[in-house]
Specification:
With 509 residues, the protein is of the alpha/beta class. The radius of gyration is 27 Å and the shape is elongated. The two termini are 19 Å apart. It binds ligand NPW, adenosine-5'-diphosphate (ADP) and potassium ion. The site of potassium ion has 11 residues, from strand 5 and strand 6. Its cofactor is Mg(2+); K(+). GO terms for molecular function: ADP-dependent NAD(P)H-hydrate dehydratase activity; ATP binding; kinase activity; metal ion binding; NAD(P)HX epimerase activity. Pfam families: Carb_kinase, YjeF_N.
Length: 509
Amino acid sequence: MIVLTSKQMREVEKIAIEKIGIPSICLMENAGRETALEVKKILEEKNLNSVIIISGKGNNGGDGYVVARNLYNWGVDVKVFLTTSIGAISGDAKVNLDAILNMGIYVAEITQREHLKFLEKAIKESNVIVDAIYGIGLKGRITGIVKDIIEMINQANKIVVSVDIPSGLNADTGKIEGCAIKASKTVTMQFVKPGLLVYPGVDYAGEVRVAEIGIPYRLAAEIGKIYLVTSEDVKLPKRLGDTHKGNYGKALIIAGSKNMTGAAYLCAKGAIKTGCGLVKLAVPQSAQSVIQGALYEVITYGLEEKNGILSYNALSSVLKLIDESDVIAIGPGLTHDKDISQLVYDIVKNIDKPVVLDADALNALVGRLEVIQGKRIILTPHYGEMSRLTGLGTDEIKNNLFEVAKTFIDRYKVTLVLKGAKTVIATKEGSIYINSTGNPGMATAGSGDVLTGMITAFLAQGFSEEKAAIHGVFYHGKAGDIAREYVGEYGMTAMDILENIPDALKCGL
Ligand SMILES: NC(=O)C1=CN([C@@H]2O[C@H](COP(=O)(O)OP(=O)(O)OC[C@H]3O[C@@H](n4cnc5c(N)ncnc54)[C@H](OP(=O)(O)O)[C@@H]3O)[C@@H](O)[C@H]2O)[C@@H](O)CC1
Ligand SMILES: Nc1ncnc2c1ncn2[C@@H]1O[C@H](COP(=O)(O)OP(=O)(O)O)[C@@H](O)[C@H]1O
Ligand SMILES: [K+]
């Protein structure tokens, strides 16, 4: 599903209005009416009848007047409050404000602190609040009386429907600009905005509904570079009858150390359960027997080691195994030391096959990342690993996911899976994909190792790096969502995610 930033939204609106000739007031009418219909649905479901609409100075406020007019016509008890003076409103918003004034709908200004008590009383008496204060036109942070209004609404514990975007939420980053409305539902216009899809925006938006307001889809397809990954985007091909394991790829996983054999297990098992034809697992010699005893479907190799950790001497064995494989994953549980660092660096330098780099393979390349440039590589860092790779703080990464991901791939021309509560995938071509599956139960040790195995399996089955990353992340989250139905979020382990991979994949057929 295409996602548009506020700037791109303005561009498509401009083309729709100026080039195509769709009157802007029609778009506002559609936006307001679609929101009014959502509010009506809530009122009918709960047998309620009283709504207040808080409108700001711009077109978001204009949508609010249309909501008021429609609800009033349907017999709802409606009151409108402006966060600005009536005289400050212009354009389409003014046309719609005049209409509700002419209809005799209650309109009051809340522009001074002493007005707040009227609003407080109205909020108490209302059932639903419509937030039409700011939409995609918000600039900077919210201060002054609007901040008081937003805090009053948030404390009221009412059903809140936000028009386009919760006021105060940055439509592009999902950051809170000073304060923001905590909506129960957001009716967003025509295209979903990125800020509604990542944290903390997700927590403020509530349920998101995309409303058709009459802007042609093709306009967005021409400029959009951000996508929400939904089940429609990750349909799996049916396996052909006349095939054998050789058709589904040979993956080599280089993982594990004496204290982290589990990481190697989870990764290899994740790959085999995602349909990889043959999985080979290279671990330090002393870890081989314990791994082999637990993984019947996987061929294991015990390589040169020092104290239970792969040593640099393993390089020639690894390169030979790589020659005999289609795709490679390196990293889970390797641990971090000088030998590992040089081993990983030399492997990556010599490789020309698709590779997934995770965990300690990422740590190994800190400070000399140039070696990945332009290779068929997928990196899967969480924010901590990304921080080590880029030198940025984890908060800086979390608050600017898209920008950080885009800057990284512009520089290194690889595929990036930036893991988090909302995982973001950035592709070589500069597109960003936001995942829609997964839950906090997956915040558990080993969960990322399973993901690496899954992405590797899709690569082995011939998916491009971009598609392998998108499918891997989506079905990993889906397996976690199915696991939640059985074990809940507290008790979920990486093994629970593994066990539900088959059911997750069945959803894609
Ligand atoms: N265009 C279209 O065709 C359609 C648009 N639609 C709707 O319009 C919305 C966009 O409307 P918009 O561009 O008027 O911006 P909006 O979000 O109402 O806010 C801007 C106003 O707020 C003010 N302001 C901003 N930041 C501030 C701050 N920190 N603190 C204080 N004030 C601040 C700013 O004032 P200024 O600083 O410019 O004086 C300006 O007046 C969009 O989200 C959708 O709902 C739909 O109807 C479909 C058709
Ligand atoms: N709150 C959450 N919601 C959804 N997914 C999550 C959440 N927390 C973690 N995850 C997912 O779990 C995985 C954790 O990976 P990682 O941190 O590498 O774990 P490990 O190194 O222990 O294997 C990632 O795929 C991440 O997206
Ligand atoms: K709003």
